[in-house]
Amino acid sequence: MKNYVTTVHVLFIISLAIMFTSPTLYACTGLFSKAEDGSVVYARTMEFGLDLNSKVLAVAKGHKYIGSTPTGKDGAEWESKYNILGMNFFNSDFVADGINEEGLQAGGFYFAGQCKYQDFSEDCKGRAIAPEEFMTWALSNFKSVKEVEAHYKDIVLVNTVNKNINTVFPIHYLFVDKSGDSLVIEFLESGIAVQKNPVGVFTNNPEFSWHLTNLRTYVGLSPENVKSKNINGYDVVPFGQGTGMKGLPGDITSPSRFIRGVYKLASVTPFKDAEDGLNKVIRAIKYFYISKGNVVEAEKGNRILEYTQYELYKNLNDFVMYVDFYDNVNIKKVDGNKIDFSKAEVQLINFDEGQLFEDITDKMVVK
To answer: 112's torsion region: left (phi>0), alpha (psi -120 to 50) or beta?
Structure first.
């Protein structure tokens, strides 16, 4: 028992060191859950220390993609089988998080210091893509988690430096489909780790299996208030509400967000359908919002501010996406069923307006 505890503590310290010695910190959080009617809802925050310049991206089936390689030569080539809706990055035709018309969801989450991608060689050129292209490759080719699990080895993720961040994008991946099936894929030093996500929560470092182990430390938390106790004849009465969650970590690190996410999601009252579910996950994901100045990384004399650039919500059963941005928190709806994908292979919506305030003064009525 002593050796086990020591090992866990050492792993925890090492994992935190990896996170806090990375060039910049990225604190994304994802949640997904299933409604009583079978609908699956998904929500995530997108945090980054650089402006991703993200736009809503719609890509039509038939669009041709070419994978990136470290040499600048073309990698894998493929044609999308499905219409895709998602959020892009750095004006790319690839998505950081998206959904296809069949209800498959793919999200990339920053995973600094723990990724191990393959070195490029001519032998793998025809199957090579950059790590940030993996989500789009999956959404282009598959309609379910089961298919992703069967074919993810058909492609090779290679160490291609992204010129926008001057390093290889370190990412681990969360896939969810409209049945509620899920899959986490991580490219580690020890090999490729593939497993289901039984808790509906995803964050960043360390690897996903570590988060599930760490969850055991917080097994005593509960939404139910702690009862009074009598100790040697003295009644000890708890202060106020929320005593069952005493000890819930409140900081912004990935392990703490994972624990908060699990208990936040688990304590949400059951929802009947997608509309009810979206209403609840929207409120749940706000629990992880990071304002500018909450997380600061000092790098080469610069102060890099980590913040929530957007929050994304989806109903995986109807090809509809909702998004709000740091400078405009009004939730916008994008209905993939109403998009004319025959109009162009690639279409964009760029939200560059500031915060909007709905004036409801004229709705005042006499009591």
So the answer is: beta
Neighbours of 197 (CB within 10 A): 20
Residue 139 CA to residue 106 CA, distance in Å, equals 7
- The full DSSP string for 6-52 is HHHHHHHHHHHHHHHTSSS----EEEEEE-TTS-EEEEEEEEESS--
pTM for the whole structure? 0.89
CA distance 266 to 252: 19
Both tokens of residue 1? Answer: 């028992």
* Distance (Å) of CA 154 to CA 72, 105, 121, 216: 21, 19, 16, 35
Tell me what pLDDT residue 299 has: 75
Cβ pair 41, 273 in contact under 8 A: no
List pLDDT tens digits, range 339-362. Answer: 999 999 999 998 878 888 989 999
State the pairing for strand pair 40-48/56-59.
Answer: unpaired
Q: Which residue has the tokens 């405009």?
A: 328
Instruction: List strands edge to edge, sheet with 84-88.
Output: 191-195, 182-188, 171-176, 105-110, 95-100, 84-88, 56-59, 346-349
Distance separating alpha carbons of residues 149 and 145, to the nearest angstrom: 6
